[in-house]
């Protein structure tokens, strides 16, 4: 299914692919890359044999993506998965099992409208590359890294390299805490998050 809907111009079409049998699929890389479905619901997908999801939604224009049923236990590559999706604001990946993932490079690269990301289930025990994973995600407000230990990752350079943000006192009435972080201070970052109830902006 690699590149199956690549470049599909379908802004006025309600995508329904619930009839697809994906139980034997191993490669979904680039599947929706450069497409412009407003909503993508893959809650019916069986992904238990998939190993490659690299660039699956890269450069697409989907505002809503439902991956709630995804079984990612055999996936090794999620690099560029949402890279340069500039419409996406919220993504819940709390169901993801990343215990076999090796490559997370540029997973959310240039997702400049992304505000909320739930990675609470993410583990990095086999990950070798996380370079530029959140580069230019300058709209981020809430990121859940609660179980994410990246100390053993070989390449995590510029993991949180984001554009500068205006150090305002509040956003829509919510307290904001400005956190400056470099790629080698992830433990300190987690300490700062746990010490406040404020929303977090990383700069």
What does this structure look like?
It is built from 1 helix and 8 strands; from the N terminus they run βββββββαβ. 4% of the residues lie in helices and 13% in strands. It has 203 residues and is mainly beta. It has a 3-stranded parallel β-sheet, with no helix packed on it. A 3-stranded mixed β-sheet has the order 6-7-8. The protein is globular, with a radius of gyration of 17 Å. It has one helix at 186-194, and strands at residues 39-41, 64-66, 90-92, 116-118, 142-144, 170-171, 174-179, 199-202. Residues 163-185 and 198-203 have low confidence and may be disordered. Strand 7, helix 1 and strand 8 (199-202) form a beta-alpha-beta unit.
Helix content: under 10%
- How much of the residues is beta strand, in percent? 5-15%
What is the number of helical segments per DSSP (H or I, 4+ residues)? 1
How big is the Rg? 17 Å
Coarse shape: globular
Spatial strand sequence of the major β-sheet? 3-4-5
- Find the count of extended strands (DSSP E, 2+ residues): 8
Low-confidence stretches: 163-185, 198-203
N-to-C SSE string, H for helix and E for strand: EEEEEEEHE
Report on the biggest sheet: 3 strands, parallel
Based on helices, strands and strand pairing, what is the structural class? mainly beta
Please state the oligomeric state of the protein chains shown: single chain
Let me know the average pLDDT: 81
Give the N-terminus to C-terminus distance in angstroms.
37 Å
